[in-house]
């Protein structure tokens, strides 16, 4: 029996940041196609930004609970989509804080993550705050490769390149 190489022994895990952007579909679809073709896995991360309204503790707590419920719903829907495309249940990470900081922290903490997949906005001159960060300062402290998927690709386009 041939000895497995490190790449064969360790499944690839593609991390996708979940948000409510239009380009999320392209990033997630691309990641699922790559995972399916390589017998890899998907990991999903959603980051709840810090509550801006801190004047009354009760109101702030209610806002935090509502944000968490919305995040859990978004993660559930996208987890079901990943399962439909790959036949596997994704790993799910729900964080609170600055999305840039939490993304780097997760990648550094979860050694199984092997690639970050981000969707780029094509609606203007700006690809999005997370991509802007990850292609500048974030790239120097990120331990995994970063793939940026243009938000204007169709599923057929993605099928053709994966």
Explain the overall architecture:
By secondary structure, the protein is of the alpha/beta class. 28% of the residues are buried. The chain has helices spanning 6-9, 24-38, 57-86, 99-109, 129-134, 137-141, 155-161, and strands at 13-17, 41-48, 91-96, 115-120, 146-150. The chain has a single domain (6-161), classed as 3-Layer(aba) Sandwich (Rossmann fold), CATH 3.40.50.620.
> Which class do the helix and strand fractions yield?
alpha/beta
The biggest sheet, with number of strands, parallel, antiparallel or mixed sense and barrel status, is:
5 strands, parallel
The H/E string reads HEHEHEHEHHEH
Count of DSSP E strands?
A: 5
If classified by CATH, what would the architecture be?
3-Layer(aba) Sandwich
Flag low-confidence runs: none
In CATH's first tier, which class applies? Answer: Alpha Beta
As for the number of domains, it is 1
Identify the strand order in the major beta sheet: 3-2-1-4-5
CATH third-tier fold name = Rossmann fold
Beta content comes to: 15-25%
Q: Which radius of gyration do the C-alpha atoms yield?
A: 17 Å
Mean pLDDT: 91
Tell the overall outline: globular
Cα separation of the termini? 30 Å
Share of residues in helices: 40-55%
Number of H/I helices: 7
What would you call the quaternary organization? single chain
By CATH, the superfamily comes out as HUPs
């Amino acid at each position: 029996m041939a000895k497995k190489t490190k790449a064969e022994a360790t499944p690839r895990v593609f991390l996708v940041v979940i948000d409510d952007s239009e380009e999320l579909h392209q990033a997630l679809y691309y990641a699922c196609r790559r995972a399916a073709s390589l017998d890899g896995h998907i990991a999903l991360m959603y980051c709840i930004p810090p509550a801006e309204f801190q004047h009354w503790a009760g109101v702030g707590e209610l806002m935090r609970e509502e944000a968490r419920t919305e995040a859990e719903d978004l993660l559930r829907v996208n987890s079901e989509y990943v399962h439909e495309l790959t036949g596997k249940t994704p790993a799910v990470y729900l964080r609170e804080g600055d999305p840039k900081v939490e993304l780097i922290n997760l990648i550094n903490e979860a050694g199984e993550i092997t690639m970050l997949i981000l969707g780029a906005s094509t609606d203007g001159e700006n690809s999005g705050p997370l991509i802007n960060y990850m292609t500048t300062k974030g790239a120097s402290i990120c331990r995994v490769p970063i793939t940026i998927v243009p938000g204007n690709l169709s599923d057929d386009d993605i099928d053709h390149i994966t």
